[in-house]
């Protein structure tokens, strides 16, 4: 693709990167075939190729309107288009940069600003979210039906973190919403790692990974979170931890992108690269370990929803499937396994119509083979699927 970026964009530290990504697109349109929003809405501008055109227009100084913002807002950031693209276009990165610019140029309504402000003030802060969630749990019966479905019932549990002392050590990311929505996942992972003679370390002052702010184009907040985390984790990196492990693929993909995001910051670029390289999904770590036998009977039918953040973002395919099959589970083939479930961070709240359509399609595919259980690898997808499924939905780690 030919480009003619404005002098201002050319002078930006990421100007050359923007140019390179735009030029790598050859307009073939293959990506549209796997784009969920294009398939639902049928509008070229709601597909990756059209959005790339809109971003090109933006970076070349063309007209940027509320329509531009709407088409970009409707993108799930599922990155299925990246998996399909034969030219390796880094769509997600371009979209991230572009969303920041559009946010600066196109004002939002007071209502939209208010909603975003609330989301950015609560969701990335573990304790604020915990308080809100526990209130929501108590008042669940008062909530309208559509909202009630989104508030999972979580039973009380012990959150006492065991202390281990093995030579092999990893950092286990906690996440912001996972400790409230699915509090047992990390405890189960910690117990499993202990059996494998690996110490899972928990960082007391770990902040949000920054994904939510990044998706809402609050880039300054996102960068602050990233820097805070790098500062918190760095002493452990220097001390020789083996890996930084994520049990929520939405956080994992973000941390794996730290290197790319911080590449123009002289103080953090190198550290961010090291941290990104050390980061892995729990499935990547467990794939090479000798796991204890599962306590469930052999042959239980399982439908696995591989989150977009794992399969398209982190490009991890077949790790969870392989582990579960080794454990004796019968994995069902899922039609449209590459498609997003519509959760996508806060997308289900901001674009409920598209999100509900995707959810209905996904539930239909997952339940088609009549599984005993549906499993996934990201707390956001898990909660979203739970809101519509007639089959129990859980994190795949629960099956080990
Ligand atoms: S992003 Fe990739 S698949 Fe889509 S139009 Fe461009 S080159 Fe083709
Ligand atoms: S990230 Fe997903 S929704 Fe967005 S353009 Fe790519 S395929 Fe479509």
The percentage of residues in β strands lies in: 5-15%
**What number is the mean pLDDT?**
91
Largest sheet: 4 strands, parallel
Number of strand elements: 8
Class of secondary structure makeup: alpha/beta
Structural domain count: 4
Based on the coordinates given, report the CATH architecture of the largest domain.
3-Layer(aba) Sandwich
What's the overall geometry?
globular
* Hetero compounds: iron/sulfur cluster
CATH C-level label of the largest domain: Alpha Beta
Give an account of the 3D structure.
With 400 residues, this protein is α/β, with parallel strands linked by helices. It has four domains: 7-105, Alpha-helical ferredoxin (Fumarate Reductase Iron-sulfur Protein, Chain B, domain 2, Orthogonal Bundle), CATH 1.10.1060.10; 110-148, no CATH class; 168-286, 3-Layer(aba) Sandwich (Rossmann fold), CATH 3.40.50; 293-399, 3-Layer(aba) Sandwich (Rossmann fold), CATH 3.40.50.1860. 50% of the residues lie in helices and 8% in strands. It has helices at 7-11, 15-24, 36-41, 48-59, 66-73, 80-84, 91-105, 110-122, 126-138, 145-148, 178-181, 185-195, 211-215, 219-238, 249-256, 258-261, 269-278, 282-287, 308-313, 319-326, 347-350, 352-367, 379-386, and strands spanning 168-172, 198-201, 243-246, 279-281, 301-305, 330-331, 373-376, 393-395. It has a four-stranded parallel beta sheet. Strands 6-5-7-8 form a four-stranded parallel beta sheet, with helices on both faces. Helix 23 (379-386) links the parallel strand 7 and strand 8. Bound molecules: iron/sulfur cluster (2 copies).
């Amino acid at each position: 693709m030919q480009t003619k970026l404005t002098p201002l964009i050319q002078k930006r530290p990421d100007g050359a990167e923007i140019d390179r990504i735009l030029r790598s697109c050859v307009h073939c349109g293959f990506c549209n075939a796997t784009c969920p929003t294009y398939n639902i809405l049928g509008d070229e501008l709601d597909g990756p190729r059209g959005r790339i055109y809109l971003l090109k227009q933006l970076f070349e100084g063309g007209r940027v309107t509320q329509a531009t913002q709407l088409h970009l807002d409707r993108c799930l950031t599922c990155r299925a288009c990246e998996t399909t693209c034969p030219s390796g276009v880094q769509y997600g990165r371009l979209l991230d940069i572009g969303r920041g610019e559009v946010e600066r140029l196109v004002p939002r309504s007071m209502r939209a600003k208010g909603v975003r402000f609330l989301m950015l003030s609560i969701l990335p802060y573990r304790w604020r979210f915990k308080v809100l969630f526990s209130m929501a749990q108590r008042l669940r019966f008062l909530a309208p039906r559509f909202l009630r479905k989104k508030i999972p019932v979580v039973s009380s549990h012990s959150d006492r973190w065991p202390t281990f002392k093995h030579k092999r050590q990893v950092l286990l990311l906690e996440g912001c919403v996972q400790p409230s929505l699915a509090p047992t996942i990390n405890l189960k992972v910690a117990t499993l790692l202990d059996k494998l003679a690996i110490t899972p370390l928990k960082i007391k002052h770990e902040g949000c990974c920054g994904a939510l702010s990044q998706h809402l184009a609050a880039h300054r907040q996102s960068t602050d979170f990233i820097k805070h985390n790098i500062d918190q984790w760095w002493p452990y990196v220097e001390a020789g931890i083996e890996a930084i492990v994520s049990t929520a693929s939405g956080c994992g993909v973000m941390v794996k992108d730290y290197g790319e995001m911080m590449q123009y910051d002289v103080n953090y670029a190198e550290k961010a690269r090291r941290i990104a390289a050390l980061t892995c999904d729990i499935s990547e770590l467990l794939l090479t370990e000798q796991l204890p036998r599962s306590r469930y009977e052999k042959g239980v039918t399982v439908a696995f929803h591989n989150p977009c953040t794992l399969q398209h973002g982190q490009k991890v395919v077949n790790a969870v499937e392989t582990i579960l099959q080794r454990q004796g589970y019968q994995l069902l083939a899922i039609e449209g396994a590459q498609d997003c479930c519509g959760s996508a961070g806060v997308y289900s709240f901001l674009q409920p119509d598209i999100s509900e359509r995707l959810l209905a399609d996904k539930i239909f595919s997952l339940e088609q083979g009549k599984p005993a259980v549906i499993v996934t690898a990201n707390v956001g997808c898990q909660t979203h699927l739970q809101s519509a499924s007639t089959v129990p939905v859980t994190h795949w780690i629960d099956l080990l």
